[in-house]
TrEMBL record:
This is Mitochondrial-processing peptidase subunit alpha. Residues 63-209 form the Peptidase M16 N-terminal domain. Signal peptide: none annotated. Residues 219-364 form the Peptidase M16 C-terminal domain. Belongs to the peptidase M16 family.
Amino acid sequence: MLSGMLPRLRSSTTRALRKLCGLAPARDNSLLHPLPGLDLPPPLPDNLGRSPTRVTTLPNGIRVATEDVPGPSACIGFFVNSGSVYESAETTGVSYLLEKMAFKDTKHRGHRNLVHELELTGGNVGASCSREQMVYSYDTLKGFMPEAIEILIDCMRNPLFLQEEVERQLVLAREEVQDLQKNPERFLHEQLNLVGYSGALANPLIAPEDALARINDKIIQKFYHENYTADRVVLAASGVDHESLLNYAECLLNDWHKGSPVEKPKSTYVGGDSRHRADSDMTHVALAFEVPGGWLQERDATTMTVIQTLMGGGGSFSSGGPGKGMHSRLYLRVLNKYHSVQSFSAISNIYDNTGLFGIYLTTVS
């Protein structure tokens, strides 16, 4: 009897030891098979194809565009035909301030309440200014899109531009302008436009200090009301049903007034040269030429972006970890051969009717 119990005891002890050491048979904790009683959703197809882009123009001129992209998240954004090209000597730098004044106090909610509502939806908001466009975006889960649409429209249509908030943002803007001298790449990107064009595209995107000294809440409000009109606005969204967004837009945007017809300020590419002496042992160079047509020549603009990707670039030291950009053409044919070059990359700026394409490099002085 004892001899019959020993094998069973040995087997039981062996199983216990295997479990203790993490050596239990795979069938005990396998992830290859679904758990019993678990209902899984049907798998997504391998190729979903591209969702069609639907565009509807409201009676006041606002264009509503959507792509119903599958997935749990959605993004909605306002694109306004406004920016530094529409600034005058009086309003220089206002677009730069409008970016900083985004998602602050509105007629219907204070900034603290706004932040609280954003946290409840898990939303991520952002604003950016460029020479020809202002962009305001809101990313969140699809279930929160009704709240996101209402919040975004409120922030776009009803900003208060409180003087105390304007003064607070002006302080931050002055600090950024002073730091611009310590950021050669950003500084040279600005210089490319300032010397490359005459006319509106030569207006500074980053406000100079003397312009910041003139800006106040009244100037910002005047520029906003003159340029943020319905006929210059596009409401675009991905991951959103077109009819649903259209219903919200018709309800919340139908009383947004059209503006008077505005002729876009003209710009001419003239080329030029700018040199700035700095106390540094490194030399930074940006060299670019015009690509006529801009986004209106869509094929050429797309070709330019492909060429930029093919050329790529990188640095001799990559802050993002080893291997970043190492197989790009500029990395293989410049950085690997000329060790005095610290970084080398292709750059581009594309506008409605023109564009710039070139290179940016850093080398030992």
